[in-house]
Amino acid sequence: MTTSNAIRTSQLVRWHRRLLWLGGITLLLFALTGVTHPIMSWTGPQAVTMRPPMLSLSEAELNQAMQRLQQANLPAQSLVKLVPYQQQVLLQLTSDLQSPRHYLSLSDEASAISDQQMAIWLATHYSGLDETQVRRSRLQTEFDSAYPSVNRLLPVWQVDFDPGLSLYVHTETLSLAGITNSYKTNLQALFRQFHSWQWLDGVPLIKALLMTLLLGSALLLVLTGGWLLLRLPFQAKRRGLRRWHYLLSWGLWLPVTLYLLTGIYHFAYKYVQPDTLGLTASNAQPLPEHWQLPANVLPRGAVLNSASLVQGPASHWYWRLSLHNAGQQADRHSRFAGQASEHGALFIPLLPDAPVLDDASYAQLLAERFIGLTPEALSGQQLVQRFGPDYDFRNKRLPVWQLDYAKGRIFVDSASGQLVEQQSRSSRYERYSFSFVHKWGILQPWLGRDGRDAVVVAMMALVLLLAGMGFAMRLARR
């Protein structure tokens, strides 16, 4: 090594040591909080089933539902569905996305049950616990530490049981939006406050400056360490901690660098991402006054998830029947991987002169209503039946229709007539970076979710060991 190279290397060593305290502590912090996510998945409370309650429906009940709607003389509604409740079939009425839903029985003039009663019944279904064990239930209209914004669905009902278990139920989709206890809530809070730094969300400029300092110091620490790996002779004799630190650095340098770079990309993108639509309901519409349902339209013995009253082309109305997916699994793995709750849909027109409608065409109609996307502007359309980097577990709904166009894509839920999410083209690259690299999702097809999480925990443990060795060597020099 020449004298000038030796000087540059010694300067690099000094900078690496100077960066150790701030950059090393940052790396320790993000590694420690990063492992809380898989630990929550492994050790947190689990539902006894992820299957929603099933609906058995007859043609007589469809006609009863139309008669009941006419008798009730209701104002305009955003969504009308037939849903199961215990041994009954009820009409569920949604006026907007913020208010509790209302219910009508098919025979009585009074409201059948409250939204709270529906939520408690669903909570007992998913938890396997008895209604007598319910300690309290309340409508939650804002995200908090126990039910963070990553869950996306609001409002939900929080149902607390005596064993200390809390379930968050979304009554419109009859789905379990979240399940937690004090242990999981504390882990979630640790992750959000010291990995995502949400406690600084109210002061975005300070958060940006602080995160830039912390992540920048950690990245410079790793980059100077990588440069030293290339500059220092491989055959040099190293002993003790120095030897193990050097060998471990060769194995960890690339994954740690990518972990930091994708984390920085994810953080920075939030400040520049374009405005897009989130969960959006269809506009409230006056309900149909006339109907003439055809006979023998229901498949014999059909088992359904729900039946939705939807407005198709030229203001024609249809019952959209969500056919239950008999192959749906109830295990934890299927919950995270995602599985379609329905196996196709049937559209039953309320009037005989209505045009034939299928689910793909209805999804296109919704896209045009929400963002003015015409069929000619579509570059692609597909039914999404699994969660992935483009449409992930946070949305909770499957199946949905993905409709691509020049500037991005949207996802619509034809069962509820809602726009679930709009994505810009630029967000696609950030999603792939974060999902495949930062969260190690590239390993999931081969190792599964638990295998991937095990690799993440092992890597973060090695990062902690590497940083600990660095601190020990630095302290030994004093």
UniProtKB/TrEMBL annotation:
Assigned keywords, A-Z: Membrane, Transmembrane, Transmembrane helix
Protein name: PepSY-associated TM region
UniProt keyword Transmembrane, yes or no: yes
Transmembrane regions listed in the UniProt entry: 20-40, 208-230, 250-269, 454-476
Natural source organism: Alkalimonas amylolytica
